[in-house]
Specification:
The chain is of the alpha/beta class. It has a single domain, classed as HUPs (Rossmann fold). The protein is built from seven helices and seven strands. A seven-stranded mixed β-sheet has the order 3-2-1-4-6-5-7. β1, α3 and β2 form a beta-alpha-beta unit. The longest helix has 20 residues. It is globular, with a radius of gyration of 18 Å.
Amino acid sequence: MTPDIPHLPCDDILAALRPGDDLVERMAALLRSAAGRTVLTTSFGLEDQVLTHAAAAAMALPEFTGAARRIELATLDTGRLFAETLDVWAATERRYGLRVASLSPDTAEVESLVAAQGVEGFRESVDARRACCGVRKVAPLRRALAGASLWITGLRADQSEAREATPFATWDEPLGVVKAAPLADWSRDDVARYAAQNRVPLNVLHARGFLSIGCAPCTRAVAPGEPERAGRWWWEDEGRKECGLHRRPAHAAPMPEALVPVTTAAQAFVPEATSWA
């Protein structure tokens, strides 16, 4: 039986993420509504960088100055990130004066995985790849969200066919947390435009055609016209290519009809990377 959402009722979520509100107000509204710890997980891609900017701006509002209620930032340091991702991680901390908590996989589990699969055994099958994601990403995520009441993500409904039903909020039963997607109704162009207008630090790989960035061995640039997530685990058949962090929602707050986005082919707009000293 799916439980009622205990920390952030669906009606409150829909009220928090209102049409017309800017992103900073959406983040502030989520922070006001959360009953406990609020965690924003970031992979330092376009969407997560924009959310980090808005989170920093929201926490700088007078009502949150000096308050215990904060948005915590956390990343899953899989051990196989691009050097460029590490660069934008450092630039983000400098820009916003915030620390991003690093959650690494268990050393013994990684050693066991590599001993069983080989260093690139994840290419052998979908199950093998999911096992790798499970050790390097899913298990650390559980630690990142332990005791949290609200998990903020950078999911958008038009990122892929598998994500087209992304709601503003859902109850993630396995993790026991409310999962919010403040960008659910935004297009990639919307996010890129916001990043440019606010000089948000971006991964230089975006300007090289990497529209979605994960672990280095599992990510490539996409060709013109390809879906934006086509560069993830590209050797697998197209379909539901996910790492296990995001499941189909069991209990969701539906998106207002006026905000339901039109799912389109991959956006042609690729933001220019911004250099930060």
